[in-house]
Amino acid sequence: MKGDRLYKKAYQLALNGEDQKAFELLKKAIKYNNPKALYALATWYLHGHVVKKNIPKGIELLKEAAKYNHPDALFDLAVSYEKGLGVDKNLEKAFEYYLKAALRNEKQSFYEVGRCYYYGIGTKKDKKIAEIWLDRAEELGITE
Fold it and tell me: In this structure, are 6 and 62 located in the same domain?
């Protein structure tokens, strides 16, 4: 995948505490639309790590990473839409992103999809389908 070498080098630099150098490499990697780099920078902007906290920029980068089906970006967008963090609250979009994340094996999303079906959050309430998703989440060690 384009930008992977830049991302991997940035990751190593970040592990060694060289965050500013890592940030510069991540910025280069996102020019290649590297989803891992997009997600990493999104979280840095959302949490104010290395850069000034900038939630709109973080959400923008999450959305870009989600276009490439990055599981963690999909999950984080789901949470954002469910809670209205940096975006307008939209339970249907939250459910959609939880489902996409689960289909890409983001483990916590299995529970969240089950919870959405159980309570009818962003989707029609269906306790039978909820039970299937919640059972799978439990198999993965996710109980809430």
Answer: yes
Q: Residue 143's closest CA among 82, 127, 133?
A: 133
Asked whether residue 97 falls in the same domain as residue 144, the answer is yes
138 vs 119: CA distance, rounded Å: 18
Is the pLDDT score of 105 beyond 80? yes
**What DSSP string describes 78-114?**
HHHHHHTSSS---HHHHHHHHHHHHHTT-HHHHHHHH
Residue at 84 is within a domain:
no
How many independent structural domains does the chain possess? Answer: 2
Dist. CA 11–CA 96, nearest whole Å: 30
Task: Supply the mean pLDDT for the chain.
Answer: 96
> What integer is the mean pLDDT of 32-48?
96
- Would the pTM count as exceeding 0.90? yes
Residue 52: strand, helix, or coil: coil
One-letter identity of residue 82: E
Q: Is 85 contained in some domain? A: no
Contact residues for 83 (Cβ-Cβ < 8 A; gap 6+): 89
| Domain membership of residue 23 as a residue range | 1-68
Please give the structure tokens belonging to residue 69: 């089906």
